Structures are given as C-alpha cells and as structure tokens.
Input
Amino acid sequence: MLFEKIEKGAKDIVFVYTTCGSLEEARSIGLSAVDEKLAISADYWFINSIYPWKNVIQELGQCMLMFTTQKYLSDKLFKHIEVEHSYNVPMIARSSNLITNQEYFLWVENTLSNNDKYITREEADIIEKRNKAESGYERLK
Output
C-alpha cells in the first residue's frame, strides 16, 4: 500500500468522542450519526469512569463512543450528539488526526459525499439473492 500524506483542510479526518450511560445509547447515537452521514464510523466500548458530580466522586461504568468523521462535519456531529444524548452535560471532544493514508482518506471522502442512502445487511442479502435468482433465470432463456 502506497503511503501519501494528505494536505490539511476541511476534509481532514478527525475523531469526535463522547461518553454514554449505556451500550444501547452509544449504539443508538452511533448508528443515527453514521446513517445521517455525519460520520464514517462509530466505535463504542465499555469503560470505567471516575469524576466528580455535584461534589461527589462518581465511579461507574459508561461507554466511550468514538466517531471518525471529516472536520467540516464535526460541528453538525456535535449538535447531533447534544440532541440525542441523555446526559445534562455530555462530554464531547474533537481530536485532530495528523496523518491518514490516502486510500482510507479517499474512501471516507467518497462515502460521506455520496448522496445514496445506506441499506442494512439484511437488505443487501435480499438484493444479492434476487440478483442471483435473476441471473440464473436469464441463463435459462
């Protein structure tokens, strides 16, 4: 794989992080953001957190939710997270990415700029079965 540095700009790949109260919430926010093409991916995992809330030290399990997106989409993604989030004061942070390989950068750019709606894995399987059935029918003609 050829490595090429991509010039900095509005389409830079950035990471947006937030914490969620449950796996279901992280999945829901992640899925809606990817479906609305605000992010190319959403990764989530369990974490243990320690922080003060109303002067009381809290120690609890949460889910970290990390989005990969383009810089110019990050403000819209922030707003999306704020609307969908259950916390009164959600932590939402953006982190820059210094270098991205060209193939991944181009895939992100092409996928997020494409206006086609995504389909589910189940819908893709149905289409594939239909195409196979139709191609078999055509061979019989």
Strands lie at 13-20, 41-53, 56-70, 92-96. The domain at 13-140 is CATH 3.30.70.120 (Alpha-Beta Plaits). The first strand starts at residue 13 and ends at 20.
